[in-house]
ribose-phosphate diphosphokinase (Mesonia aestuariivivens), 313 residues
Amino acid sequence: MASAMTDVKLFACSQSTELARKIASNYGIPLGNVITSTYSDGEFQPSFEESIRGSRVFIVGSTHPGSDHLMEMLLMLDAAKRASARHITAVMPYFGWARQDRKDKPRVPIAAKLIAKMLETAGATRIITMDLHADQIQGFFERPVDHLFASTVFLPHLRALNLDNLTIASPDMGGSKRAYAYSKALESDVVICYKQREKANVISHMELIGDVTGKNVVLVDDMVDTAGTLTKAADVMMERGAISVRAICTHPVLSGDAYERIQNSKLEELIVTDSIPLRQNCEKIKVVSCADLFADVMKSVHENTSISSKFLM
């Protein structure tokens, strides 16, 4: 088999080094050697310090802001292509810029489509990512995309909490499909928040669809940015009689005053993955690693075996 003859090499973009180390350990291979040279004006150049000719190369790097994270992934893909790697997989636990997946008003870009084309042009022959902001982004690629679900790591954690009168909640209408999937897996009730925005990251009004009286509520979402929606939803649910409110969010973007907002909120805890490294500690934030999930899928990709068991939703 070709896969048996092809060496596997795993490398990390600088923003995801810690996660890549965990993935490499779970996979059972060493993390590859990359050095990055930086010019005085901020321009940088990554360099593979070992041969990757004919290898299957996995490059781990989330593309959360700033834009240097995306640029580093593109440069490493291009370097791998020019170094004659046989297969080049961009492992992007968090696919950034995904909120721009359509034209929601005139004269704006579709950034997610642009980035998909950039990744392919740079040299990616496969993409592995997790909990895309919009499922249809998979269709922006002409290469295979393995879209993993963090439910595979979150559901065991939720079951271990043994919460009575559990209710799953979506913080907005767009996340209702995710909430229903969790509620089906956990055999629980589900409620939906309806929100109106004045502008991006600013909520003008929120209503609750469903009853949370006497319930332990768990909000589920793909990402948490300013935490304005989550903390507002927690306020509304506690006012409506909830016993407790927790949140699980795959990607902890956590910009602006998010950490302070969470710490001072009515949330019992916020459970996230390590797709994006936390900028600071917060006693209410619990991190569940996705390294084992990615290692298993990468191994299956290399060995040409099914990964369907990783799709719980």
Observations:
- The chain has a mean pLDDT of 93.
- The CA atoms of residues 14 and 132 lie 22 Å apart.
- Residues 151-288 form a domain with the Rossmann fold fold (CATH 3.40.50.2020).
- DSSP finds nine helices and 14 strands in the chain.
